[in-house]
């Protein structure tokens, strides 16, 4: 059932408000506890953030999304072992530990991946593997709707992902660029998370203070690397939890009063509105 609610405008809070919300989230005695907000940086004053926003008229924060297992189902863990007729443990034992990483960094192409994928160099159907992975790509439940809500509210969003140039197969199937830009892919940057250099390259490209970036990833290791550099890190668990965490930080997507409905917020000629799905 969909319920249409009219809302007042909620703006991205100043840093003091965000820190207060984060303290509430990490305080086990708080009624608004949410364990997945990992850190909020204090490296830039609220005044500086406000002034910067006024100067370039840029809506902050910028959101950086991991892709695999955060936005898109990763077929590697189930579909790929089945394609080879192996268990996951058998596949890990047989495959070269460096080939996929080098492919993700853009150091080798897919032909070289085909030669190096297995330790013993056995041949396999590379096109069949690509088709297997292509078939397995799909949005995780609730994530596309969340991205749509953020895009409708004009948030700047970028992919920040470890993936080879096969990301184009994901784009061709799911059209993720409707919501975010494929700006930071390891195959284009030559670096992978959690390498700090990858994060620093992203900050330099975006020209924003790290405390004005929110990074979402299903890997705690990658989130902790972001936090170490002053980036706001959110550990992804599922779309509803992420929506609640973003709402706590003042991002214009929220849950209803009972927390049972997910609301996607937008703006039209009448004002702010939210469609709530129970």
Automatic annotation (TrEMBL):
Protein name: Flavin mononucleotide hydrolase 1, chloroplatic isoform X5
SUPFAM superfamilies: HAD-like (SSF56784)
One of the record's GO molecular function terms: hydrolase activity
Source species, domain of life: Eukaryota
InterPro entries for the chain: HAD-like_sf, HAD-SF_hydro_IA, HAD_sf
Keyword vocabulary terms for this entry: Hydrolase
Organism of provenance: Ziziphus jujuba (Chinese jujube)
TM ranges: none
One Pfam family here: Hydrolase
């Amino acid at each position: 059932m969909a319920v249409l609610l009219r809302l007042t405008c909620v703006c991205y809070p100043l840093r003091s408000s965000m820190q207060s919300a984060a303290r509430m989230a990490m305080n086990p005695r708080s009624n608004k506890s949410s364990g997945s907000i990992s850190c909020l940086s204090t490296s830039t004053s609220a005044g500086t953030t406000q002034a910067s926003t006024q100067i370039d008229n840029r809506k902050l924060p910028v959101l950086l999304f991991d892709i695999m297992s955060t936005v898109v189902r990763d077929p590697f863990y189930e579909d790929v072992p089945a394609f080879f007729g192996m268990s996951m443990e058998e596949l890990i034992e047989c495959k070269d530990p460096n080939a996929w990483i080098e492919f993700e960094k853009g150091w080798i192409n897919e032909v070289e991946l085909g030669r190096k994928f297995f330790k013993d160099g056995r041949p396999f159907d590379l096109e069949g593997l690509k088709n297997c992975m292509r078939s397995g790509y799909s949005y995780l439940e609730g994530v596309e709707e969340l991205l749509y809500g953020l895009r409708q509210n004009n948030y700047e969003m970028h992919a920040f992902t470890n993936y080879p140039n096969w990301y184009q197969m994901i784009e061709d199937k799911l059209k993720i660029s409707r919501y975010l830009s494929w700006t930071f892919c390891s195959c284009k940057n030559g670096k992978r998370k959690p390498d700090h250099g990858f994060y620093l390259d992203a900050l330099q490209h975006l020209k924003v203070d790290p405390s004005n970036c929110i990074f979402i990833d299903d890997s705690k290791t990658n989130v902790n690397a972001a936090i170490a550099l002053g980036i706001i890190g959110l550990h992804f668990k599922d779309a509803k939890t992420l929506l609640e965490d973003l709402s706590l930080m003042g991002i214009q997507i929220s849950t209803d009063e009972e927390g049972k409905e997910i609301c996607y917020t937008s703006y039209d000629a009448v004002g702010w509105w939210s469609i709530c799905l129970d």
